[in-house]
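dumping this here before i forget
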Amino acid sequence: RAAAMARAVLAADTVTSAMRVHHACNLALAGLVPAAYLTPSENKAVLGPVDLALGVVAPVHSHITMNMVISDYVPPAARGVARSGLLGLSAVAALGLLKLNLQGPGITASVRRLWEAKQEEVIMTVVVVVMVTMVVVMAVMVMVRSTVGLQPSAPRATLARASPAAERINSGGRIIWDLP
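structure:
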């Protein structure tokens, strides 16, 4: 039972029950986002529960969706590391949103502040978020490469000279990964 639960969390896109949760999250987000948008800021009795629900539903939805991306685009040998890193990021996101909802203004008020803030503050916030995201993505790529030992294959011109089959495989512009 514990192994099935671990698989449902780590490889959420491969378990039927997790996919049901994903579909329920889709429906919940379809209702929660308009509710958050349409509820006046002064109505804390409604916004509080909506923000708490968003703080749970959004990370769960994102976690399962990113597991789908990992299944589609990460080489099989690196999926365990990628899924573990994703679980850590999903937990940090959920805890951050929980803290924002319980000790801060809440998700809805924070998003609304983006439109109220001075333009320079918004631009700086976006720049910082983009830069941090790029650093995290590069760190994960380095970690995956060093952990699994993946190296990009030779450039297309070298592959084309190597064999016609290699040229056909790489004709779509994809990187072919060579395992050591």
